[in-house]
Each structure stands twice: as C-alpha cells, then as structure tokens.
Design a protein that fits this description.
The complex is a heterodimer of chains A (113) and B (236). By secondary structure, chain A is mostly helical. Chain A has helices spanning 2-9, 16-38, 43-65, 73-80, 82-110. Chain A starts with a helix and ends with a helix. Chain B has 236 residues and is mainly alpha-helical. Chain B has helices at 14-22, 34-63, 71-74, 87-111, 115-145, 159-190, 210-235; strands at 77-79, 82-84. Classes of the chains: A mainly alpha (113), B mainly alpha (236).
Chain lengths: 113, 236
C-alpha cells in the first residue's frame, strides 16, 4: 500500500508557456502547409514542403502534447521502432505500385501478345 | 510526466535507463501508469491500421492509369462567388488543432488539480471535436451531392471515392468516439470524480487525473492522424 502511495505522490507538470508555444507553432505550420496548396507549388518542391511540415507537426504533437519527450526511453523506443516496419511497407508498396502501373500501361496499350 | 518514484528503484535517464528498466525482471514501463501504457499500445495498433489505409491509398493512386481527381479543386468551396481551394479542410484542420491545444492544457490543469479549469477545457475540446464532425458531415454530403460514390465520381479515377470515404470515415469515427468520451469525462471532471477518487463504471481503479492524460493521448492521436490525412489526401 505504501509503495503505491509513493508511486502516486509526484507528478510533474510543465509551464503553460511551452504548450502555448507548441500550439502557436502548429497553427503557423498548418498555415504554411495550406499556403503550399494556395500558391500551387508543383513537383518536388510541393512534395518536400508537404512532408517537411507534416513531419514537423507530427513530431511536435507527439513530443510535447503527448509528452513523449519526457517519457522513459523504454516506452519511447517501443513506440517508435515499429514505425520502421511501416516505412519498409511504404517502400515495398511504392515499388509495387510502379510495377502495377507499368504492367497496366503495357498490356492496355501494347496488348497481351 | 513519468517522474513518479518507485521505492528502492533508481530511475536512470536515456538508453542506460531503458536497459535497466527492461532487464529488471519487473514491469517494463516504470513510472508509467498502466492505463497510459495500454493506451499507447492501442494507439500503436491504430497507427498500423491507419498506415495500411494510407499505404493502400498510395498504391491505388500510384497504379491507376486514369488521372487522379485534383483535390484542390474537388474540395474547393465557393464563398461569395469566389472558389477558394481547400477552404473547409483548412478550417477543419485549424479547429482540430485548437481542440488539441485545449486538451493539452486540460491535462496540465488536471495534474494541478484545478478542477474547474480542467473541466472547461475538456468541454471546449469536446465542442471543437463536435464542430469538426459537423463540418465533415457537411463535406461528405456536399461530395455525395456532386455524385462522388465509392465506385465512381465525376472528377477522375474511380478509386478516389472509396479511399476518400474509407479513410476520412474511419478518422471521423475516431473523432466521434472521442467526442462522446470527452463529454463523459467533462462531466466526470466537473462532478469531481477525480478529486474524490470515485471509481469508474467498468473498473475498480480509483479515479485520478491521469485519466485525463490518457484521454488526451487518444485525442492528440486523432489530431496526429489528421495531420497525415491532410498532407497525403488533401494536399498531395
């Protein structure tokens, strides 16, 4: 019983400033990513800007709003390493998609002979 | 948030701490409330579900021989006779970020045992979420009205509709469930369940403000998923 009490005694909170900063940053970043569409950037510039703002926003939300920045590494690593599996999956399916569209174009327009 | 003390156990920071936590023949996530750890595991599995949806969307869009509908025009909204690209989606994004911010503050005030402030902020979050769902319903009905179906649409590749309804629908379901829980928890905060350690309906666990953080994790995750949907579905 005593041990449980000791466990629950201390929980730290953070200064309100940090939340407001992150909040503001998220607004600004969202505005920027909307501007990418507004100014109709195309091609590589568009994709890299979208990805840049997306990862920045996702990172800020996870690190500070979801408190991952302050969590134990045991939890952080369990959560983040599986993402490499997703990255692999994305790579595989991107290659697969290219192959599928190639075969489709090939057989639609060249024929199956 | 995990600086809780455990008797006779020294918390070490960084990777040394991780090795020690993992290899100590005890609970692995030390100082982390079990409910929080379980929510994280659930969110991890949910990440995989959403990833599979988005990856299948990527594959579908990359492998179609028909031109993909241009989202900037499909999701444009006409305001005072001027067509503004992605206007509704941008507003939805800002609404969701706003509600995410109020949730983060609710967690903070919860831990400071500031009942009223926490309650109002949870309620504000719930209302933000409700606004989001409302706007999504409007967006859906607008597109359905324009003839977008899971099997066809007037703008381009037929797969567009099925991916759109599946991905935004699944996300909208998450938001709706979150809104329901936010209203329930707003009531629980205002009623003082976490100050009096009142037990929940389905659990013998004593009420504690950590539950607000657990709910917050879910809500931030919903916002997180929207960041990816916004980037990949609407902007790309």
């Amino acid at each position: 019983m005593e041990e449980i009490k000791k466990k629950e005694e201390q929980t730290t909170t953070h200064k309100i400033g940090i939340y407001l900063w992150i909040w503001g940053l998220l607004f600004v970043l969202s505005f920027f990513s909307y501007m990418v569409d507004w100014y109709e950037f195309q091609g590589l510039l568009r994709w890299s800007l979208i990805l840049f703002f997306m990862f920045l926003k996702a990172g800020l939300i996870m690190a500070f709003f979801m408190h991952l920045f302050w969590e134990r590494y045991a939890l952080v690593n369990v959560l983040l390493w599986p993402m490499t599996a997703i990255a692999c999956f994305i790579g595989l399916m991107a290659a697969e998609g290219k192959y599928t569209v190639f075969t489709r174009f090939f057989y639609f327009f060249v024929g199956g002979q | 948030m995990s600086e809780q003390k455990i008797a006779d156990y020294e918390f070490k920071p960084g990777f040394t701490g991780m090795a020690k936590d993992t290899g100590s023949d005890q609970t692995m996530f030390k100082g982390v409330h079990w409910g929080k750890a379980m929510m994280w595991i659930f969110l991890l599995s949910d990440t995989f579900v959403f990833s599979c949806f988005l990856i299948s969307y990527m594959k579908g869009r990359a492998s179609t021989t028909v031109e993909w509908p241009y989202p900037s025009e499909v999701f444009a909204l006409t305001v005072f006779g001027v067509s503004v690209p992605l206007l509704l989606i941008a507003i939805m994004t800002f609404v969701l970020i706003t509600s995410s911010g109020t949730m983060a503050l609710a967690v903070k005030y919860g831990y400071e045992k500031n009942r009223k402030m926490c309650g109002w902020l949870v309620l504000a979050t719930a209302i933000g979420g409700l606004t989001f769902v409302g706007m999504q319903a409007f967006e859906w009905s607008k597109l359905i009205h324009e003839g977008v179906r899971p099997w066809e649409n007037p703008f381009g590749a037929a797969q567009f509709g099925s991916y759109f309804f599946m991905i935004t629908g699944f996300h909208g379901t998450h938001v709706s469930i979150g809104v329901i829980f936010l209203f329930i928890y707003a009531y629980k905060v205002f009623a003082g369940h976490y100050d009096t350690q009142k037990r929940g309906w389905f659990t013998t666990m004593k009420g504690d403000y950590v539950e607000i953080e657990i709910l917050g994790l879910y809500w931030h995750f919903v916002d997180l998923v929207w960041v990816f949907i916004f980037a990949f579905f609407y902007l790309w």
